[in-house]
């Protein structure tokens, strides 16, 4: 929740109840009317959109049908002409005359006039722009319009890249009629399209006949705006390199034919871009003017062009805009009337509540004798009676509280005296324990030193006895054997036992002294990179880790402010224990992790080792107690050290363990300073 919402909520709660009730009901009315209007408008908009798209699809198919009907009629005409022997005869004659004397000769002109009436009847009947005869050598040998293409070669001449030339080549290769797309034709100086069919008589290809379609006839079909209202139109275009070239006049741009192209990667005119690429579809989009429209589009492969039928969304949704304005006016009147009624009714509720609130304010200001005089049977009356009862109860409670406070003050003073006395006692006991640890580790060491010294002297004496025995031949063999066994075996064995026990006792005393020093060590604080510290400790254990084929995973550990020596001892002892107690029948896995806790951080060291038996869990932190694994070297002091160092910082340590599966030791240190680095795997 941002600050603006919080401030608005506070202002609302500061309003009188009358205005709060009015605001709630106003919101509910506005929300209900708004939701109802929104759903209605959405449904109506969706219906208009669906109906309009259906109509556009029908118009698109209708136009497509009209165009295809026109093309099929022209196809029928040219097929009849291509099979007519008179057409083949005219082609042969005109081809011969053209080859002998050229297109400008008198003989050529005379023969053109001879055949012109025959072809004019077809042209006028079907309304063609031109009718051309083309020889098998690709020469245009006859043209009703007698334009610049007459007498030229469609393969080698200057019009070899026109739509007529392309259609001629496809027709002669495929031996069937071919359409050319609508494009600029230089001889006609404007848009043109052709249908070309080969002339095959008695199995022989004599040439081809071409009909130049009447562009105005196609434009009439394309520009027919029936059902398209005031803004609708049809757009037709073909693909030219990376653009859609418009080939017919537009409603909004009458001169657009072959003068307007729409890049295929532009944001505007997306429907025609999709159409010229062979796609069909319908929906809402933006037209070439950048206006939102509803459109239906498709591709006409016969003329190699795309077609879009569209209408502006603004015109389609104009009734919805009018409905919104009307609904807004009616809703405003309803809201005004409803709010007026709500405020009048809320006054009958807020008045008594305000009166009761005034009484409560006086009571809160210190007038504890004030009481409510509202006599009602509704909830406000219940509140009034409840306030009066509460005031009486509070009055009685005040006296009881004053008495309790006096008793608590006496108990507090008594408790403080006891705490001071107990603290002094504990401090003295702590000093006595420190002294005891010193005495145990210092005073008992002197006898141990003496025992070890005298054991050494005894060894020297035995050596001298052995030297003397070697020269004492007067003793019998049996006596010599007994003395020899005493000096060479029994006494040395006893001396070894004395030495080993003394060294062990010395080690235990050192451990006690070390433990007592850990508890009172003054911390040297510094920022510690716990990942680097852990890696440093693991380097010293690398040999043991390799022997157990152990993977160690260091999770994201924080940098903390602490004593580096203490943290090294804590982590070092926990890792050393984890390595010592790894199982021999599987690869080792050790994981070091940390979690942020309230006012501190908790570190954990887990392993998949032998685990701790249930009966040994109470011995884990006890000095000189090492559980059931006697094959593991050590004094049984490591975890006692860890517990002492953790507790000296106000922390605590715990563990979880499953025999045969592993253990996890976790210790908490207060006031941890977190700065979590990336995860590192060793």
CATH topology of the domain at 525-681: Heat Shock Protein 90
What integer is the average pLDDT? 79
CATH architecture of the domain at 525-681: 2-Layer Sandwich
Find the count of extended strands (DSSP E, 2+ residues). Answer: 21
Which sequence of strands runs across the widest sheet?
10-9-8-13-12-11
Largest sheet: 6 strands, antiparallel
Q: What is the end-to-end distance?
A: 44 Å
> Which structural class do the helices and strands define?
alpha+beta
Helix content: 40-55%
Q: What can you see in these coordinates?
A:
The chain has 682 residues and is an alpha+beta fold. Among the domains are: 83-216, PAS domain (Beta-Lactamase); 223-316, Beta-Lactamase (2-Layer Sandwich), CATH 3.30.450; 444-519; 525-681, Heat Shock Protein 90, CATH 3.30.565. The chain is built from 16 helices and 21 strands. Strands 10-9-8-13-12-11 form a 6-stranded antiparallel sheet, sandwiched between helices. A hairpin with a 2-residue loop joins strand 6 and strand 7. The longest helix is centred in the first third of the chain and has 66 residues, at 17-82. It is flat, with a radius of gyration of 55 Å. Mean pLDDT is 79; it is low at 672-682.
Short précis:
With 682 residues, this protein is an alpha+beta fold. It is 55% helix and 18% strand. Among the domains are: 83-216, PAS domain (Beta-Lactamase), CATH 3.30.450; 223-316, 2-Layer Sandwich (Beta-Lactamase); 444-519; 525-681, Histidine kinase-like ATPase, C-terminal domain (Heat Shock Protein 90).
